[in-house]
Specification:
α1 packs parallel to α2 and α1 packs parallel to α12. The protein has a single domain, classed as Aldolase class I (TIM Barrel, Alpha-Beta Barrel), CATH 3.20.20. The protein is globular, with a radius of gyration of 17 Å. Helix content is 45%, strand content 16%. Strands 1-2-3-4-5-6-7-8 form an eight-stranded parallel beta barrel, surrounded by six helices. The chain is built from twelve helices and eight strands. It has 251 residues and is α/β, with parallel strands linked by helices. The two termini are 13 Å apart. The structure holds 2-phosphoglycolic acid. The site of 2-phosphoglycolic acid has 13 residues, from β8.
Length: 251
């Protein structure tokens, strides 16, 4: 039985005091309730250290939204994997479609980031997803296969066990258009079979594949009840503690 993993991607939202408020509210909501899922919050860099102190001793884990693949040096504006570890991060979101589309990240860059994160003991939430045009041209599975194979190139059987894959159809992100549970399940099953082909059935059985793209309290349960959907990567709906908590409860 795979555990469900619910992660909140705050994106570029919330300054430090707003972050403190949101984390505290999530903490309070979770504290009084038996929760059956792993919970990860991914605030902006500036709030990570404070957030780490706030979630200490709870079952809420901390993730960052990005990092660079070099260890240190003249990379103005970038953050390394070991820096994220030093402020208490366990996870890092890599290859998000906004990073790919707005910041020009290629599969090769994302592959380097996945490898670097793993070597620093930071667990990647590795995102893949097709655009609307690609779906309409009926090349969704080809695009996903390409992103998965390139993003995981050179990653060993031992290392893949530490990776979460997030399937996020680009057309569903922040648009209010969710993939239907069946559309999502089809791609999740495809990814799991691909992992089986690339690694082994055991690894495919155990790997966590999250769905992301307009997950809300009212659609979370049907999505999360699909056999190959093991969690959610939530954007908009994670910015309010009550809706994030509703999604956690659906798991
Ligand atoms: P959304 O974002 O829930 O606002 O669609 C999801 C994501 O980008 O991770």
């Amino acid at each position: 039985m795979r555990k469900k993993v619910i992660a909140g991607n705050w994106k570029m939202n919330n300054d430090l005091s707003q972050s403190v408020n949101l984390i505290s509210e999530i903490k309070n909501a979770v504290a009084g309730n038996a929760v059956n899922a792993e919970i990860i919050v991914c605030p902006p860099f500036i709030s990570l250290e404070t957030a780490s102190a706030l979630v200490k001793g709870t079952n809420i884990k901390l993730g960052a939204q990005n990092m660079y693949f070099e260890e240190n040096g003249a990379y103005t504006g970038e953050i390394s994997a070991s820096m994220l570890k030093s402020v208490g991060c366990d996870y890092v979101i890599l290859g998000h479609s906004e990073r790919r589309a707005i910041f020009g990240e290629t599969d090769e860059i994302i592959n380097k980031k996945n490898k670097k994160a793993l070597s620093a003991d930071l667990l990647p939430i590795f995102c893949v997803g097709e655009t609307l045009e690609q779906r309409e041209n009926d090349i969704t599975k080809k695009v996903i296969e390409d992103q998965v194979r390139k993003g995981l190139s050179g990653i060993s059987e031992e290392e893949i066990k530490s990776i979460i894959i997030a399937y996020e159809p680009v057309w569903a992100i922040g648009t209010g258009k969710t993939a239907t549970p069946q559309q999502a399940q089809d791609v999740h099953e495809f990814i799991r079979n691909l992992i089986k082909e690339m690694y082994s059935s055991k690894i495919a059985e155990n790997i966590i594949i999250q769905y992301g793209g307009s997950v809300k309290p009212d659609n979370a349960e049907t999505l999360l009840s699909q056999p190959d959907i093991d969690g959610a990567l939530v954007g908009g709906a994670c910015l309010k503690a009550d809706s994030f908590f509703e999604i956690i409860k659906s798991a």
